[in-house]
């Protein structure tokens, strides 16, 4: 006859396997829910600022309306120029390939291989944008609903085994929000600095390349290199080797600024991770969950590290 501990062990194993099965079936939905929590954490300080003088629902509405309004206004003002420059960039790429083939004796398969990373990442992102607009809207709505309840994450602590979860969840919530805000600032600074440098050098479609670089900066250490390579090839075919070299030097200066100031501060002092661990997490979650996994690799690592730290106490 089975003893109660054995029955409990089999029950725990069955529940664990059931959870793994559910995770495998619903992981895409869970990623969007996690994105909603990350967005809510990012805007939580702004909501808290408005909540000092306004009721919580009004503060949430005003905070999200302000952020969406600023983003919408920026897109409205920049869209005509960006559409024109992206169209020009698309028309310019075949000319770049022909120039390199004629002057450097590179075959098209070789060129396609050398540009694979940047083209694949950029193309995959653009396709994902078109496919996931509705999911983004739902994630935003869910983020608003989460923001309406202060300290919602900490309320899950009593339902978790053991004690001390409130502090862990609150700390994880703060670190996720800081990462999201800082990552946005890194992407924006890269787009402005790199796009401005390309404009100064007279490289075709500078703002399109800058925005592309800012978007790809959601993949730290990799996205900027892909954009710099593309800008180098465009400058090499349109302006010559000197300007192309200056493009790389400018990117090197921006990367040095990020590598010595921004990224160590964000991933080291605040997030608490070595940059190598961040890169490994990005590759791992990207392999498991695709582009959304790449974007959410750092906050998911923050959550996992918080849980592991609690269990090791």
Automatic annotation (TrEMBL):
Annotated Gene Ontology cellular component terms: plasma membrane
UniProt keyword annotations, A-Z: Cell membrane, Membrane, Transmembrane, Transmembrane helix, Transport
Domain of life: Bacteria
Subcellular localization, as worded in the UniProt entry: Cell membrane
Keyword Cell wall biogenesis/degradation carried by entry: no
Transmembrane segments: 7-23, 29-50, 62-86, 178-201, 207-235, 242-267, 279-308
Pfam family, one: AI-2E_transport
Primary localization: membrane
One GO term of the biological process aspect: transmembrane transport
Membrane topology: Multi-pass membrane protein
Keyword Cell inner membrane: no
Family in the record: Belongs to the autoinducer-2 exporter (AI-2E) (TC 2.A.86) family.
Protein name as catalogued: AI-2E family transporter
Source species: Thermus scotoductus
């Amino acid at each position: 006859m089975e003893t109660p501990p054995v029955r409990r062990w089999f029950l725990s194993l069955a529940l664990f396997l059931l959870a793994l099965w559910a995770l495998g079936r619903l992981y895409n939905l869970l990623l969007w829910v996690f994105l909603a929590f990350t967005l809510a954490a990012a805007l939580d300080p702004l909501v808290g600022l408005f909540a000092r003088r306004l009721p919580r629902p009004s503060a949430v509405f005003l905070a999200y309306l302000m952020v969406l309004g600023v983003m919408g206004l920026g897109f409205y003002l920049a869209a005509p120029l960006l559409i024109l420059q992206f169209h020009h960039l698309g028309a310019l790429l075949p000319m770049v390939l022909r120039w390199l083939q004629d002057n450097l004796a590179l075959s098209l398969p070789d060129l396609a291989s050398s540009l694979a990373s940047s083209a694949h990442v950029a193309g995959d992102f653009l396709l994902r944008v078109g496919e996931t607009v509705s999911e983004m809207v739902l994630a935003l709505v869910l983020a608003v609903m989460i923001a309406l309840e202060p300290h919602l994450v900490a309320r899950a602590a009593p339902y978790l085994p053991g004690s001390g979860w409130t502090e862990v969840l609150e700390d994880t919530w703060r670190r996720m929000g800081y990462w999201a805000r800082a990552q946005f600032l890194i992407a924006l600074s890269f787009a402005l600095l790199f796009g401005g440098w390309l404009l100064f050098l007279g490289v075709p479609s500078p703002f399109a390349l800058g925005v592309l670089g800012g978007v790809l900066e959601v993949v730290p250490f990799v996205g900027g290199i892909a954009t710099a390579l593309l800008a180098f090839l465009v400058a090499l075919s349109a302006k010559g080797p000197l300007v192309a070299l200056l493009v790389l030097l400018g990117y090197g200066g921006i990367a040095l600024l990020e590598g010595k100031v921004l990224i160590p501060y964000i991933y080291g002092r605040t997030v608490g991770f070595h940059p190598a661990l961040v890169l490994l997490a990005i590759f791992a979650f990207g392999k498991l969950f695709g582009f959304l996994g790449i974007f959410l690799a750092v906050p998911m690592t923050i959550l996992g590290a918080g849980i592991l730290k609690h269990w090791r106490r």
